[in-house]
Amino acid sequence: MKKKYIATIMKKQKIGEEKFIVYCDHAAIGELNEKTNRFIDANQKEYVPMMSEAILDSNYQEAYFNIVDFQKIKGQINKEEKESITPKELEKIALREFEKMGKKNFYYLGRGTDGKMFCGAINTEEVERKVEQTKQEEKTIAANEEEENAELATLNATGDDEMDQLLQEIIDGKFTEEELAQILSELEISLENIQDIVDLIDSMINKKQEQEKNSNQPVKRIDIKDLYEKVTKTLIAQDEPARRVIAEIARKEMDDRKKKQGILLTGPTGVGKTELMRLIAKYIDRPFYTVNTAQISTTGDVVFIDETQRKPRFIEEVLWDLYVQCGKDLQKTERAIIFFDDIDGCNNIVENSDHAVLDVLLPFISGATYDATDDTSVAKRTVRISTENMTVILGGNYSDVYKSSGRSDLGFLKKYPIEKQNRRLSTKDFIEYGTMTDGFMGRITVIKLNSLDVEGIKRIMMESDESEILIQQKIFKDLGVKLTFTDGYVTKVAEDAAEKKTGARGLSEVIDDTTWLAFDEVYTNPNTYKEIIVDENTIEDPSTYQKIERKPNKQYTKKRTNRLSEANN
Q1: Which residues lie across from 11 on neighbouring strands?
Q2: Are 17 and 149 found together in one domain?
Q3: Both 506 and 391 in a single domain?
Q4: What is the number of alpha carbons within 13 Å of residue 545 lying toward its C-beta?
Q5: What contacts 164, CB < 8 A, 6 or more positions away?
Q6: Which of 64, 322, 371, 558 has its CA 20 to 30 A from that of 526?
Q7: Is residue 569 part of a domain?
Q8: What would the pLDDT profile of 438-469 be if each residue is shown by its tens digit?
Q9: 510-547: string of b/e by CB count within 10 Å (b at 16+)?
Q10: Which of 69, 103, 137 corresponds to the end of one domain?
C-alpha cells in the first residue's frame, strides 16, 4: 500500500512578466511520486512543488506545498476522538485544518531582472498587527498626511505596469521601513492589491531590519599577517604567492564588486595550489570544496566521458555535494571557498566543445543562483544556492602558456631574450596560448605559484609542519624508536620528484613505500630497536636500512638471572 500524504494545493495569479501571487486554494490527500517529486491527488491530478522553477511555467497554474505524511496528522488527534469518528470524517477534519493553516500565508514568486527566482511570504496575522501598529504611528506624523494620502490614492489606482514598477522600486530599496509599513496599511483595504505586494513588503521590512542589525556589528576582517604566518608553516617555498592570494581574498571581503571576480592560480603540478587554498579555508573557518573541472557538463549536453568512465557532473550537482558537506547549512554553503582544478584542460574534453565549460563557470564566478540537486536527470527536491558570496578559485598548470610566451621561470626555452622571459604574462597570452576567452579573463586575477627545484622540494620535506618525514618520525617515536632520514635519502627523493616534474605531489607515497618494511619490523618487535636509519639505497630497495638495537639493561639482566637461579634451587 502506497503511503498517503496531505498537501496544500496552491493557485497562482499572474501580476506581471514572470511575477505571480500564490495562495492556498484547498487541501488534498494523495500520493507522492518520489522519482518526479510530484503530488498526485485522489483524482489522479499531478502537481509540481511550489518552490520549484516549474511553477513559473505557464503550463502550471497550481502547485503543492506543505506536504506531510498523513499518519502524522492522524497521530495528532487524541485517542478518544479517533475512536469516535470514521476514517472519512478524520480526512475531512484533516483537510479542513490543513486548509485553514495554508490560508495563513500568501506568497510572491517571480524572476528578477538578474534571472534569479525569488519568493516572499507574509503571515496574514502579521499583516493585521503591522496595520494596527502603523495606524497608531500615523497619529504622530499628521504633518505629512495629505501628501502621503495623495500618493497612496494614486497607488491604489495603478494598473499592472505601475504595480510592476512599484514592486521593482520596493526590491531596489527605494522606500524606508516606515513608508513600506504605511503602504501596507493603505493597501489592506484591497484584497487584490494585498495579494500583489503585501508579502514582498513584509520581507523587505524584515530584510531592512536585519541589515540595520548587521550594520551595527563590526565586520570580522582577515588578519593577513597572522594567516600568512600560519599558512607558510605548512606551505613551503611559496611565500610571495601565498601572501598575494591572502591579500586578494581579504580585498574581496571589503567590497561586493570584488566578490564577482575569481582568482586563477597557475603553476606546475605539485607546487601547492590546492594545499594553499585548503590551508586558507581552514584558518579562516570557511568550507573548502575541490571540483575536477574536467568533469563539469554544460547544461543539456554531456561534455565528456573519458576512458575511466567518470560521470559528467552539472554545476547544480556540484553545489548539492557542497551543501551536503556543509551539513545542509545554507549560510555556511554560500560562504564556501570552491576550487575548480585543472581549468586549463577543460576545453580539450571533446572536439568542438570550444569554451562551453568556461561559459558555464562565468555566471558562477559572477554570483548566480542555482537550484542545487543531487541528480539533475530526475525532478527531485532542490535548494536555492547563491554563489554571490563564495570565493571562487581556479587552478591550472598552463605550461603551454608560459612555454609559448617565452617565460623561463618554468624552465622552458632559454633561447628567448631576458626581457621577454621576465615579462608579466598578459590576458592576450592566456587567450592566444591557453584557450581562454576575453570575457573570462576579465573576471579573474592571475597569480602564479613558484616552480619547485630540488632545494625547494627538500625544504618541503624537512620544514613543513605537515611533512611526511615528520609524520613518519612521530609514528616511529610513538613506538619508542628514532627514525633518521639521511641527507642522501632526502636529496634523492627531491631529485626524482624534480626530474618527473611532480613537485611535492607523491612525496607521501614515496616515503610510505620506502619505510613500510622498517615500520613492520619495529612494530612486530617492540622494545628491540632504538633507531632506524634509511638512506638513498632504501629508495631502490626498502629492505635496505640500518637497524640499531637497544642495549640490554645489565643491572636488570643480572637481577633477573639471580631470581631465576634462586627459583631453580
Answers
A1: 23, 62
A2: no
A3: no
A4: 26
A5: 15, 16, 17, 19
A6: 558
A7: no
A8: 778 888 899 999 989 999 999 999 999 999 99
A9: bbeebbebbbebbeeeeeebeebbbbbbbbeebeebee
A10: 103
User: Is residue 422 in some structural domain?
Assistant: no
Q: What is the pTM of this model?
A: 0.57
Distance CA 115, CA 81 (A): 50
Residues 197, 274 share a domain: no
Asked if 270 and 497 touch (Cβ cutoff 8 Å), the reply is yes
Asked if 246 contacts 286 with a C-beta cutoff of 8 angstroms, the reply is no
The answer as to whether 407 is a domain residue is no
The last residue of a domain, from among 75, 103, 131: 103
DSSP strand pairing (38-41 vs 46-49): antiparallel
CATH code of residue 464: 1.10.8.60
Overall number of domains in the chain = 4
pLDDT score for 1:
65
Q: Helix, strand, coil shares of the chain as percentages rounded to 5? A: 50, 20, 30
Looking at the structure, tell me whether residues 384 and 493 fall in a common domain: no
**In the structure grid, which three cell numbers stand for residue 483, read together?**
627514525
Q: Give the other-Cβ count within 10 Å of 426's Cβ.
A: 12
Residue of 362, 369, 323, 320 lying closest to 340 (CA atoms): 362
Count CA within 13 A, CB hemisphere, residue 109.
23
pLDDT for res 458: 94
Question: Whole-angstrom Cα distance, residue 361 to residue 392?
Answer: 10
Same domain for 392 and 520? no
pLDDT of 482-502, one tens digit each? Answer: 999 999 999 999 999 888 888
Write the CB contacts of 32 (distance below 8 Å, at least 6 apart in sequence).
Answer: 3, 5, 38, 39, 40, 67
Domain that holds residue 520: 454-549
Q: Dihedral, CA atoms, 79, 83, 85, 90, nearest 10 degrees?
A: 50
